[in-house]
Design brief:
By secondary structure, the chain is of the alpha/beta class. It has a single domain, classed as OB fold (Dihydrolipoamide Acetyltransferase, E2P) (Beta Barrel), CATH 2.40.50.90. Helices cover about 25% and strands about 30% of the residues. It has three helices and eleven strands; from the N terminus they run αβββββββαβββαβ. The protein has helices at about 15-25, 90-105, 135-145, and strands at about 25-30, 40-45, 50, 60, 65, 70-75, 75-80, 110-115, 125-130, 135, 150. Strands 1, 2, 3, 4, 5, 6, 8, 9 and 10 form a nine-stranded mixed beta sheet that branches. The protein has a two-stranded antiparallel ribbon with strand order 7-11. β5 and β6 (about 70-75) form a beta hairpin. The longest helix has 19 residues, at about 90-105.
Length: about 160
């Protein structure tokens, strides 16, 4: 996995080796729930594509993920749909956006920043901006042609 460097001295046992190998699979996530209070919580997460039964730390599509059992909508972008695409090209681009989001959230620590003026969308998802090193992960998807900047409504992808 890129972005990680585990340095260790000669382990004295197999158990220690296993511990360090497992540590390479864990990504710290910094969550900022209230931007004004700057409250931060640390969590350890590895994200994969969501399945019907796994809804703890996973990616639903290019702009939605589950974090510790809470559904989060990435508020600053819109990506193509993969659950009900309107055409084959939307599905293909949506799958690429989903995989890229998985890669981005697993690349290292990031913050979840509250969306100004609105905590949840009409579906009950938390509205957050994912930020690493001062840059929105959504902006990265936009720059790679996998998302659009959120304009306040969905636009067609076909």
């Amino acid at each position: 996995m890129t972005g990680f460097r585990i340095v260790y001295r000669r382990p004295s046992s197999t158990l220690i080796r296993i511990f360090f190998l497992a540590a390479m699979l864990v990504v710290p996530v910094v969550v900022t729930e209230n931007a004004e209070a700057a409250q931060q919580t640390s969590a350890q997460s590895v994200f994969r594509k969501c399945t019907n039964r796994a809804r703890a730390n996973c990616v639903v599509d290019g702009d939605t993920l589950w974090l510790r059992g809470e559904k989060v909508r990435i508020a600053d972008i819109d990506t193509p749909e993969i659950s009900q695409p309107k055409c084959a090209s939307e599905l293909a681009l949506g799958n690429r956006a989903t995989q890229r989001l998985i890669d981005l959230v697993n690349d290292g620590p990031f913050e979840l920043q509250a969306w100004p003026g609105r905590d949840e969308d009409r579906y009950g998802r938390k509205l957050r901006v994912l930020v690493r090193d001062g840059r929105s992960l959504g902006d990265i998807l936009v720059s790679e042609g996998l998302a659009r900047t959120w304009s306040g409504r969905r636009e067609p992808w076909c």
